[in-house]
Amino acid sequence: MKTRAELYQFKHGNRTWYSTNQRKAIAHAGIEYLPVRGLQRTAIEDESIDKCDTEVTLPQMSLLNAEGDNLSAVFAGKIFYGGVTVTILELYLNETLVLHKGRVTQPKFDEDADTLTLVCETGESYLNRNILTRKFQSSCPNSIYDRWCGLKFEDWALEIKVTAIDGLKISFDVVPTQVKDAAGNPVFEQIPVLDEEGNPVLDGQGNPTFEDGDPIMESKTYPDGWLSLGLLLKDGVNTLVTSSSANSLSLYRQHVGLKVGDIVRVAPGCDQSLKTCAAKFENNLRFTGHPFIPSSNPIYTQLIK
Prior knowledge:
The chain has 305 residues and is mainly β. A 9-stranded mixed beta sheet has the order 3-4-2-1-7-8-9-6-5. The protein has a 6-stranded antiparallel β-barrel with strand order 10-11-18-17-16-19. It folds into 3 domains: 5-127, no CATH class; 153-176 and 220-286, Beta Barrel (Thrombin, subunit H); 183-218, duf1285 like fold. It is extended, with a radius of gyration of 27 Å. It has helices at 71-74, 123-127, 153-156, 274-279, 298-301, and strands spanning 5-12, 15-20, 26-28, 31-35, 40-41, 54-59, 85-92, 95-110, 115-122, 158-166, 169-174, 177-178, 188-192, 210-215, 217-218, 231-234, 237-244, 248-251, 263-267. The longest helix is centred in the last third of the chain and has 6 residues, at 274-279.
């Protein structure tokens, strides 16, 4: 590449968009960057941590990746849980220079100009923020399945098949899973082992021997509310489940790309109470709330002697 070109990488979950401000597609490092007419950005200032952000403007209708996913759909409703990361490269003589690497903090739609402007912040400026990390509260401040909660999403998740979508309400069937024994080992059909004459092959104690056949499957059932305040995972992106019943759930927001027939993973939620933490998850040793805070301030209601 003899002229300078800018390469843009947007990533959300497992999906990535590769774009360039040039008129033709550019292949670099085994990746094809698709041309986007009108792709532009503001200047990147680097004199201080607080002034190294940039704004990238793109046309709303030309934000497709190679798989046909629309980037603008990720920002529908201006709620994009999980975050979108952005990397801007400058390509010259087949060498690249990283101009910006960070995350999108705000999308701004201009319907008149039919453009989408993404406010992009670097990791350094994000870490420089002063944010509230912990509160003295009765409920647990941990988010379920985070590192402080300690529970693993993979250990609690189950697979469901989406059968219907009505707004934010999702109907589903639980995908059958293999039965496990008391030790947690998968259970198979037991097929007798026969010799060449069709007689059972015996072990050293004279008992018939068996070999594993097809796995034994079961369709588990879950009570109403089991998935409430849990998570739905698809394409590396989580969406909060606000409520659930035996075969349906409601989402906090639209999950981009979710469609009927998809098989996705969901995991149960927690209301952050000590009772639920202990009874539902047996995880009360990691509970970090303060459920016994007095309802009234003793400084004002009692005499201190």
